[in-house]
Design goal:
43% of the residues lie in helices and 13% in strands. With 259 residues, the chain is an alpha/beta fold. The chain has a 5-stranded mixed beta sheet with strand order 2-1-3-5-4, with helices on both faces. Helix 7 packs across helix 8. Bound molecules: zinc ion. Zinc ion (ZN) binds next to helix 5.
């Protein structure tokens, strides 16, 4: 299968740490990231309420690519209607971390998971719409308003995004819709398998488990403590026996030699 080529850019200043390698080294059979992120400045002043940038303004600010299928730019400025992603002309997408950065960090998810999720979402949309990204002004129906932990959740309430940042899914309804839109079972299977790798870090998973089940966590740590102390005392006994035996052997040798 020919992979979708995606170029990435950072639009303006990102006031938080972002692990670009986590994205550029991500292995996928659905898409390939072409080159590293490129940085672009925002030259124009905001043109919507709340210091946001409209689609038409961003279409002028973002680069037009010719050596990839899709361009996705990440930014921190607010975008039209305070969405977190907007589809622009010429197969370009703008992803805004404004608000999202705080929502994602507060829930201890890796900040990069949002972009990974969006890479799968828009790769499938690109195929579904005949190798193009439809504009926001087009009548589309690839999202659902209720939140299912699916990469096609609408997330009208921005904070709902966290439900699709740890092992997101393609729900059964979306799978059926994709089949009707002639997306092959192979592509759906690849995407479903790969999005399971979008996960929360292990440390925070353990921390979440402790918060959710404090008594069970206490019991586990109690029994683990007992098992560890049993193992430690067994090792200690074995070591003492070993050294005593060694000393005895040494003494016997010395006695034989003095006789
Ligand atoms: Zn769905």
């Amino acid at each position: 299968m020919k992979r979708i080529k995606i170029k990435l850019g950072i639009i303006g200043f990102l006031p938080f740490a972002f692990n670009r390698k986590k994205i550029t080294k991500w292995k996928s059979n659905l898409f390939e990231i072409v080159d590293d992120f490129k940085k672009y400045h925002i030259n124009a002043k905001s043109d919507t309420v709340n210091w946001g940038y409209s689609d038409s303004l961003l279409e002028k600010e973002l680069p037009i690519i010719s050596d990839a299928d899709i361009f996705i730019g990440i930014t921190y400025v607010p975008i039209e209607h305070n969405y977190y992603a907007r589809r622009l002309n010429k197969n370009r997408v703008i992803l805004s971390y404004n608000d999202m950065e705080e929502i994602i960090s507060n829930k201890k998810f890796p900040i990069e998971n949002l972009l990974l999720r969006v890479l799968y979402e828009y790769s499938i949309i690109y195929l579904r719409y005949g190798n193009r990204i439809p504009l926001c002004t087009e009548d589309t129906n690839f999202t659902h308003d209720d939140t299912r932990g699916c990469i096609f959740d609408m997330n009208g309430t921005l904070s709902d995004i966290v439900f699709s940042l740890h092992k997101p899914v393609i729900c059964d309804v979306c799978r059926d819709n994709l089949r009707q839109e002639n997306i092959s079972d192979n592509i759906i299977k690849i995407a479903k398998k790969e999005i399971k790798r979008i996960k929360k870090d292990r440390y925070y998973k353990i921390s979440d488990f402790i918060k959710k089940k404090p008594i069970l966590s206490l019991l586990i740590s109690f029994f683990v403590g007992i098992i560890l102390s049993i193992i430690a005392s067994s090792i200690y006994d074995y070591a003492i026996k070993y050294f005593i035996e060694k000393l005895k052997v040494k003494e016997n040798i010395e006695k034989v030699e003095t006789k």
